[in-house]
Amino acid sequence: MKALTANRLADGEVVFWRAGAWVERFADAELFDADEAAETAHARSQSQITLLVDPYLIDVTLADGGPAPLSYRERLRALGPTNKLDHGKQAAGGGDIEHLAHARGAARSTGRVALIKRK
Amino acid sequence: MYLYDDIDQAMLDDRTAEFRAQCARRLAGEINEDQFKPVRLMNGLYLQLHAYMLRIAIPYGTLDSAKLRKLAHVARTYDRGYGHFTTRTNLQLHWIKLRDAPDILDELATVGLHAIQTSGNCIRNLTADPHAGATADEADDPRIWAEAIRQWSTFHPEFSFLPRKFKIAVTGAPVDRAAIRIYDIGLRLSRDATGALAFEVRVGGGLGRTPYLGPVIRQGLPARHLLSYLQAILRVYNRHGRRDNLWKARIKVLVASLGAEEFARQVEEEWDRTDKASVDLPDTELARIRGLFRPRGFETLPARSAAFEAARASDAAFARFARRNVLSHKVSGYALVNISLKAPGETPGDASSEQMDVVADLAERYSLDEVRVTYEQNLLLPHVKLDDVPAVWAELARVGLATANTGLVSDIIACPGLDYCALANARAIPIAQAIARRFAEPETAERVGELKIKISGCINACGHHHVGHIGILGVDKKGEEFYQLSLGGSGEDDASLGQILGPALPAERVAPAVDQMVEVYLAQRREGERFIDTFRRTGVEPFKEAVYAEAD
């Protein structure tokens, strides 16, 4: 399962794709079962250059009883820094934030791998 | 301290106006990210995990109260009320919006601050001994020379597209407080037998994936020829430095592959055919810069301060602060006061806007309007009367800045790590916090003595882990945070690269492992030995045994 993420151009905020629009909470992100649908969304997002920087697909797991990014880096992007829990998306609180904070999936972030390759 | 003249100011104003237009074009979609990214990076604006990060240059780590107040104001107005001082003595703001960036740079320019030379493959913002101008052991104020290099290197057309970034550190003292051995160029000033100023030049130090300590390629370089000699070094690098492989592009790789001797020969050859007079700074300009760094306002005072001694005798907490954070000054009756940004449990190097404002006020009132940033991620008031130290301490304590731990186990260097950085493998901050909490009791930390712990969240080594007495490197093991420990590194006069302890540990095992190693040290140390001295005598085995015993 995948989700599509990027940073918003104007303010750098982490955003997620939802049916052609962009939302700030991972819990509101569209989840793709099929790789093909994910790739189609990704291709569309790449033309939205006045909105976004670097859209990429991330792996999502349901292993912990709900959707969460598989990689720790992507969960951290969906939450905020762990040294300041009142900063970032986590400050809003809620069940979805709690879930992400306790999810335990582990995998390399595809986003980071791509970033390093591009360098 | 140095003041920007009309030329400097016009350059800054032009630069911010240009960047404003470039941001507008990007936001309007007239240029894409690939076209815009090099431009924003050259203005210090990086895209990190949660937002943009602005890296603001603090040339040779020197600030006055107006500049520090402006940093506090920008952090409060455009960020979340705090900033992070780095090992390169810059300030990073983590929550910047692209649409605000031109306004921020405009605000900074009003006090001569900017983000020039904080990114890109150019000569970066310089660092210098934070005790410059205040320490009795220096031959000359290194900032005079650092400022000369700044003026020469800013927007230097020949050196704006080097194979890779290029960092220079300068000290004027025999004791190294600027980590000059881990720099692309490390400069040390001294006086020769005739009393003339001369540089010892090291080239090719650096950390990252392939760490090296920079070898000396030139002794006794007449100081007036500094710029022409730097030009010769950079020309050899520009000519032969690798551009085909990012990981081999730094000058350290060139120096290591040619050998220091051959590299030096090529530099001398290049320098011999240089028209030195066309590059070296005229004496009049050097004198002008020197004049701006001349400290003003020192009073004639006795070496002993009754107020200082009385406070020390009556207050154990102040006595500890005086012992750890107050250092001797070249002028009788004055002291340097180190301001720790390492209160146990806090983020190393972070300061809130309120704290920055308090330090700015203290600098203005008690330190001839000067503040320094140290590469160990602390601040420093360089010119405080001993009589005033108790008042400075009380005010620092009021805002949580009086931690008396300079050089101790809780005075930890840590990069922002995966909490903020797009390149990181693992978090660095929580590891630092966990270790510092274990040694939060001041008595315990003092009993352990000097112990420098340095933590990086990836191999790029912004946290200097290779040269930590205990170095900690975050690695990614199939998506999980692990930490590789090394021992025996030092970035100072006894410089050495650390030796890996053993297999990487999971996050929760790191602070206990540090504890275990400290126990080994306390059990084995001999009179007068620091942690690193004991390690150098015993070797890695007893430490390794303590950390990995229970795993077997």
Radius of gyration of chain A: 14 Å
Estimate the mean pLDDT confidence of chain A: 91
CATH topology of the largest domain in chain B: Sulfite Reductase Hemoprotein, domain 1
Largest beta-sheet details of chain A: 5 strands, antiparallel
Please describe what this structure looks like.
The complex is a heterodimer of chains A (119) and B (552). Chain A is α+β, with helices and mostly antiparallel strands. Chain A has one domain (2-118). In chain A, 30% of the residues lie in helices and 23% in strands. Chain A contains four helices and five strands. Chain A has helices at 35-45, 72-79, 95-102, 110-118, and strands at 2-8, 14-18, 21-23, 52-61, 68-69. In chain A, strands 3-2-1-4-5 form a five-stranded antiparallel sheet, sandwiched between helices. Chain A is globular. The model of chain A has no long low-confidence stretch (mean pLDDT 91). With 552 residues, chain B is α+β, with helices and mostly antiparallel strands. Chain B has four domains: 6-109, Sulfite Reductase Hemoprotein, domain 2 (Alpha-Beta Complex), CATH 3.90.480.20; 135-293, Sulfite Reductase Hemoprotein, domain 1 (2-Layer Sandwich), CATH 3.30.413.10; 306-398, Sulfite Reductase Hemoprotein, domain 2, CATH 3.90.480.20; 413-551, Sulfite Reductase Hemoprotein, domain 1. Helix content of chain B is 38%, strand content 17%. In chain B, strands 16, 17, 18, 19, 20 and 21 form a six-stranded mixed sheet that branches. Chain B has a five-stranded antiparallel sheet with strand order 1-2-5-4-13. In chain B, α3 (65-78) runs antiparallel to α13 (353-366), α15 (429-438) packs across α17 (507-524) and α17 (507-524) crosses α19 (541-548). The relative contact order of chain B is 0.09. Chains A and B meet through α2 and α4 of A and β5 and α15 of B.
